[in-house]
């Protein structure tokens, strides 16, 4: 049993639990704002999984950035650097996700203006009432 | 109290199952990275497919996977436009209303901090091809400066300074168009879309600018910062209209 | 090396606590505070994983902008979840 394996297992279990709790929040909580908070936490968890895939446990592990433009530095990075590809994918994902969540926030404010509530079930009831009966 | 009991059960469950997993030696962290990642590290400055940038992440974002990022920027554009179109009717012109804002102490310290944030964000964005950072990072940092100014000085001070959301959206449109032009220009010389080193010079006046990476970072910085600031202005004005009536 | 592992374990457990509290909290303003705490825990994890670029974006977006947008939404709508 190594301490690295222990830390790695803790992180994996926490990620699974965090995703499950966030999905519970998205599905079962009534308030739309609470659903939005859970959604941001779920997407953050997914980003952590991505970064975790690119990590390697060497001491010290450094970011994939040259500090001096020499071939010794290249050799050092080859031994110690983490994977740059997941970082590049997550980087755009964070900013785009932020813009999409701002769109959802606008939608919540508009729903409150129209119906006077942010409770998902009441919103559905109000929407069903407005359907004209045949 | 029930809530905290469940929390303690969750924590104990996590630690015990992690101990079991570690004892069984099922999960071990990797000690190598994938060959693809290694290829990017080897090629980012040296190597045959160099993009002349010491920063591998920025090189992937704007060169190796440049087309992906251009499309993601299009999604960013649509998301912000969709959000703003919900509030089409909100008045965002400079009005006679004057916000009070917070006390003088808060205003003075915010002035100092806002200037520092602007400096730091510009350094993050414009050195993005040399050090950690880039257009996305610098832009979201700059948006925090406006985020501080809006509650402390009130949103009307921004509007009276002629920073309206229409102008910000126009700025964002210009910056995104510039990104498109930088991506399209290599086509004129029969090179593929989003070419970097084969079309743009890697050094300008002796400074390493890594070809097109510098321009992409600069324009993305402007686009992200102005887009988010426009969102904040709309959000802080959204409910005011109905209260006035 | 032992510091890396300690930071990883500590911030993982911290994020679990904050996520659970944020989802079960009735007062939405408090829930936003817990969500920001979860973001800080995650940014410690990202720092341990040597993702400097991500940390620069994540801190600004997740602790600053998300919280502010959500507080704006709450100030326009309801403060408590029924």
Overview of the molecule:
The complex is a heterotrimer of chains A (134), B (245) and C (82). Chain A has one domain (3-129): Helix Hairpins, CATH 1.10.287. In chain A, 75% of the residues lie in helices and 0% in strands. Chain A contains 5 helices and no strands. Chain A is elongated, with a radius of gyration of 22 Å. The N and C termini of chain A lie far apart (69 Å). Chain B has one domain. In chain B, β1 and β2 form a beta hairpin. Chain B is globular. By secondary structure, chain B is an all-alpha fold. The model of chain B has no long low-confidence stretch (mean pLDDT 85). In chain C, α1 runs antiparallel to α2 (28-48) and α2 (28-48) packs antiparallel against α3 (52-76). Chains in contact: A-B, A-C, B-C. Chains A and B meet through α1, α3 and α4 of A and α1, α2, α3, α4 and α6 of B.
What are the salient characteristics of this protein?
heterotrimer; B: about 240 residues; mainly alpha; C: about 80 residues; flat; cell membrane (chain C); MrpA_C/MbhD (chain C); MrpA C-terminal/MbhD domain-containing protein (chain C)
- The coarse overall form of chain C would be flat
Q: Number of helical runs of chain C?
A: 3
Q: How many distinct helices of chain A? A: 5
Total count of strands of chain A: 0
Q: Which radius of gyration of chain C do the C-alpha atoms yield? A: 14 Å
* Largest beta-sheet details of chain A: none
Strand content of chain A: under 5%
Can you tell me the overall shape of chain A?
elongated
Number of domain units of chain C: 1
Give the overall average pLDDT of chain C. 90
Total tally of structural domains of chain A: 1
**Architecture per CATH nomenclature, i.e. the level-2 architecture of chain A:** Orthogonal Bundle
Domain MrpA C-terminal/MbhD (chain C): 13-78
Keywords (chain C): Cell membrane, Membrane, Transmembrane, Transmembrane helix
Membrane topology (chain C): Multi-pass membrane protein
Subcellular location (chain C): Cell membrane
Summarize the topology.
The complex is a heterotrimer of chains A (about 130), B (about 240) and C (about 80).
Chain A: H1 3-28, H2 32-54, H3 71-80, H4 84-115, H5 120-129
Chain B: H1 2-24, H2 35-43, H3 56-64, H4 66-86, H5 104-126, H6 135-153, H7 155-160, H8 165-184, E1 203-204, E2 207-208, H9 213-237, H10 240-244
Antiparallel strand pairs in B: 1-2
Helix pairs in contact in B: 3-4, 4-9, 5-6, 6-9, 8-9
Chain C: H1 2-24, H2 28-48, H3 52-76
Organism (chain C): Desulfurococcus amylolyticus (strain DSM 18924 / JCM 16383 / VKM B-2413 / 1221n)
Keywords (chain C): Cell membrane, Membrane, Transmembrane, Transmembrane helix
Protein name (chain C): MrpA C-terminal/MbhD domain-containing protein
């Amino acid at each position: 049993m190594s301490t690295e394996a222990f830390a790695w297992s803790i992180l994996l279990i926490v990620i699974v639990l965090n995703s499950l709790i966030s999905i519970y929040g998205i599905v079962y909580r009534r308030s739309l704002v609470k659903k939005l908070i859970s959604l941001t936490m779920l997407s953050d968890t997914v980003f952590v999984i991505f970064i975790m895939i690119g990590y390697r446990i060497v001491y010290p592990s450094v970011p994939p950035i040259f500090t001096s433009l020499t071939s010794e530095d290249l050799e050092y990075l080859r031994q110690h650097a983490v994977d740059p590809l997941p970082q590049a994918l997550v980087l755009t994902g964070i900013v785009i996700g932020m813009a999409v969540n701002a769109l959802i926030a606008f939608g919540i404010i508009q729903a409150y203006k129209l119906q006077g509530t942010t409770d998902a079930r009441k919103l559905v009831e109000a929407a069903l009432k407005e359907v004209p009966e045949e | 109290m029930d809530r905290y009991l469940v929390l303690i059960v969750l924590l104990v469950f996590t630690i015990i199952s992690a101990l079991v997993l570690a004892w069984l030696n099922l999960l071990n962290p990797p000690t190598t990275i994938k060959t693809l990642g290694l290829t990017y590290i080897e090629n980012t400055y040296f190597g045959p497919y160099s993009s002349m940038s010491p920063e591998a992440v920025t090189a992937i974002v704007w060169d190796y996977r440049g087309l992906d990022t251009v499309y993601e920027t299009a999604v960013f554009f649509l998301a912000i436009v969709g959000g703003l179109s919900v509030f089409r009717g909100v008045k965002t012109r400079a009005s006679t209303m004057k916000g009070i804002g917070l006390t003088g102490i808060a205003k003075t310290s915010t002035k100092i901090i806002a200037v520092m944030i602007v400096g730091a964000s510009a350094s993050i964005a414009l050195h993005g091809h040399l050090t950690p950072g880039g257009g996305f990072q610098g832009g979201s940092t700059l948006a925090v400066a406006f985020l501080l100014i809006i509650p402390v000085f009130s949103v009307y001070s921004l509007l009276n300074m002629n920073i309206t959301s229409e102008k910000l959206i126009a700025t964002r449109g210009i910056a995104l168009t510039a990104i498109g032009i930088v991506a399209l220009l290599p086509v004129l010389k029969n090179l593929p879309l989003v070419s970097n080193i084969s079309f743009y010079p890697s050094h300008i006046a002796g400074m390493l600018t890594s070809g097109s990476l510098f321009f992409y970072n600069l324009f993305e910085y402007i686009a992200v910062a102005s887009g988010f600031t426009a969102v904040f202005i709309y959000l802080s004005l959204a409910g005011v209209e109905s209260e006035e009536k | 090396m032992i510091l890396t592992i300690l930071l990883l374990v500590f911030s993982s457990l911290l994020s679990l606590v904050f996520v659970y509290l944020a989802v079960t909290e009735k007062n939405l303003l408090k829930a936003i505070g817990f969500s920001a705490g979860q973001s800080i825990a995650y940014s410690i994890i990202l720092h341990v994983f040597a993702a400097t670029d991500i940390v620069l974006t994540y801190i600004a977006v997740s602790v600053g902008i998300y919280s502010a947008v959500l507080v704006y939404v709450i100030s326009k709508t309801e403060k408590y979840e029924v």
